[in-house]
């Protein structure tokens, strides 16, 4: 198993940083992000798909964010998306709909806007044949190094098979 197993509704975790006044969020959602459908022959179906997916992710992020004691709002945010794929089939990140993620974070008031002045987005992929899912980390841009360090130590290879125990200073919300 790589990452954390989200249930159908997903999971949100809150991780304190070295400066305990600040923290970052980790959203775990079932499955990988949907692919972008560019085929013009199916415009109506594509529009319906996009509308349904946007609504799904917006509700998911709002529901998970409402579990927090205090909902953060990052003026300049870093968003790190890790997709845990079920196999080694080649997939391009630019064919995945990460727009749902940034739009949903904006709707949940975690980020003010998803333009270049407010958001930096990073993506990576991992293999997890038993648990295809997506982990989304969101925090203040100033804390990017600590967020990357956490991701490297707890969420990506080669340490994945030796998953370390969960730090005692983090809070779970389910």
Q: Quick one: overall form?
A: globular
CA radius of gyration: 16 Å
CATH homologous superfamily assignment: Holliday junction resolvase RusA
- H/I helix tally: 3
Structure, explained:
This protein has one domain (11-173): Holliday junction resolvase RusA (60s Ribosomal Protein L30, Chain: A). The chain has helices at 43-65, 99-107, 144-154, and strands at residues 11-16, 23-30, 77-85, 119-127, 133-140, 171-173. With 174 residues, the chain is α+β, with helices and mostly antiparallel strands. Strands 4-3-5-2-1-6 form a 6-stranded mixed beta sheet, with helices on both faces. 25% of the residues lie in helices and 25% in strands.
Topology:
Blueprint: E1 11-16, E2 23-30, H1 43-65, E3 77-85, H2 99-107, E4 119-127, E5 133-140, H3 144-154, E6 171-173
Parallel strand pairs: 3-4
Antiparallel strand pairs: 1-2, 1-6, 2-5, 3-5
Helix pairs in contact: 1-2
For the structure shown, list the relevant keywords:
single chain, alpha+beta, six-stranded mixed sheet, 3 helices, 6 strands, 174 residues
Concise overview:
The protein has 174 residues and is α+β, with helices and mostly antiparallel strands. The chain has helices spanning 43-65, 99-107, 144-154, and strands at residues 11-16, 23-30, 77-85, 119-127, 133-140, 171-173.
């Amino acid at each position: 198993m790589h990452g954390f197993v989200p249930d159908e509704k997903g999971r949100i975790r809150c991780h304190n940083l070295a400066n305990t006044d600040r923290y970052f969020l980790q959203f775990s959602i079932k499955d990988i992000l949907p692919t972008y459908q560019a085929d013009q022959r199916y415009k109506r179906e594509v529009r319906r798909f996009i509308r349904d997916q946007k609504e799904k992710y917006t509700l998911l992020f709002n529901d998970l964010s409402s579990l927090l004691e205090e909902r953060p709002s990052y003026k300049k945010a870093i968003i790190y998306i890790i997709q845990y794929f079920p196999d080694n089939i080649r997939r391009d990140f630019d064919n995945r709909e990460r727009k749902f993620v940034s739009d949903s974070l904006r709707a949940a008031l975690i980020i003010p806007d998803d333009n270049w002045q407010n958001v930096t987005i990073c993506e990576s992929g991992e293999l997890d044949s038993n648990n295809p899912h997506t982990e989304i980390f969101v925090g203040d841009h100033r804390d990017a190094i600590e967020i990357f360090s956490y991701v490297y130590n707890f969420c990506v290879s080669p340490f994945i098979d030796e998953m370390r125990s969960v730090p005692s200073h983090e809070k779970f919300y389910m």
